[in-house]
Structure formats: C-alpha cells, structure tokens
Amino acid sequence: MDIFRFPTRVDYYAVGNDLSLSLRGIIAMMQEAAIVHSSQSGYAMADVPRTHVIWMVVRWRVKRLARAQWNENLIVETWPRSMGKVTSVRNFRIVNEKNEAVAVGESEWILVNTDTGRAARITSEIVSAYQLVDEDVFSAPFPTVENGAGEERCRLDIRRSDLDTNRHVNNLVYLDYALEALPETAVAAGLDEVALSYRAQLLPGQQVKCTHRSQGPLQVVELFGAADGHLHATAVFVSRTAQGG
Q1: What's the pLDDT tens digit per position in 125-165?
Q2: pTM score, two decimals?
Q3: Homologous superfamily, domain 151-243
C-alpha cells in the first residue's frame, strides 16, 4: 500500500492561543504534503512547463482528533483514493510519534489546463504516476447544510499577500476570511471540524462579503463577491460542544 509520508512539526504559525495545532495549521500541513507528493510524482507547479496542468483544490473536510502542541514532531500521511475524468479525491491522516491520529482529512482536486484555465482530462499517464489507495478516513458523511441567508459580518479587501503562485487567492486564505466572520462565541466554544467548498476563484481587485448563520451545531459562513453577489466559497464549522468535548 503506497501511502506517502511527510515528516513535519508544529511550528508557531500553525497553533492557536492554547499553543496546539489549529484547523488552519492542519490544512496547511495537508496541503504541503499533497504538493510534495505531486512534485515527486511529476505533477506539481515546477512541472507546468512540461505538463501544462496543475491540481487545484475544490473542497476540504478536516477533523481534529487530538491535540498536537507547538514544536511536536508529526507525520502527514496522504494518498489519492480515486481519480475520475477530471477530479481526484485525496485523503490524509496526521499522526504523532506514538502513531496516534491527530487529524484526518479528505480533499477533492480538479486538474486544470494552465494554457486555457479549463478542466483537463486525467490521462492514464497521470493515473500511473500515482498509486491509488482504497482507504477512507471518515465513516459518516458531513452533516447536511440547509439553504438559508446569513447576516453580513464583514467585508474584506483582497491583498497581494493573499495570492499564491497561481496569482489566485490561496485556498487557506478563504479559511482566514471565513474565520473573520465567525462570532467570538463560536470561536470560544472550540472548532474541531470544517468543510470548505470552493465555487469560483477570488482574484485581485475584488472585495469579499462574508455572511454567517447558525444551524444547530453548525456555523455556516459564505463568501460572496461584494460587487456582484456571486458565491465564491462556503465554510461550515462544527462546534466542539456538538462532538462531546
């Protein structure tokens, strides 16, 4: 079973006020492991001049299972679980030195042609560069989110520092925007699980309107283009009290 293992540690920028690994820190670790794995497989950003394709994430689901403290050594395990015509599902597990699971995650990535900006077909050559592992990390689906309108919480300007190597807003920055829209009471209660879905890219010059609404234990944040009202992303957090701790 070909599971890629990426050694890392909890750095200062990945922790919250309690000095333990945050949801943002978890996703950052998983993203880095996925990029390194794709680089070793020949399909990362540095390979674009040859391949003319790049993977772009369209959704995340991440759950923290245990506390990992600042400066703690961890290993990110990751593997592609499936590949379709244009998308691939990639799973993650972060473990500590005792091989205890700290967090698990699932993501979906779309293959994009860098010349056209459109979805590219996943060829047999690309599939053969990775080894699929039929192992899931979640035993139940994420709670269903009902439709509804939220209350506007903030408007944020896109900064140059929000952009990644593709000159688009990095997927982690969408999470930062969503966290800005959460009420302090929700943050104080503790957040150990999040589902992020990306609908459209945010680009320089845009302003983001962030709305929030509660649905039982779920905290739903939607990110809209302030000028046109177009939905760009949704972040759904699960309150820790709903998970029994």
Answers
A1: 999 999 899 999 999 999 999 999 999 999 999 999 998 87
A2: 0.93
A3: Hotdog Thioesterase (3.10.129.10)
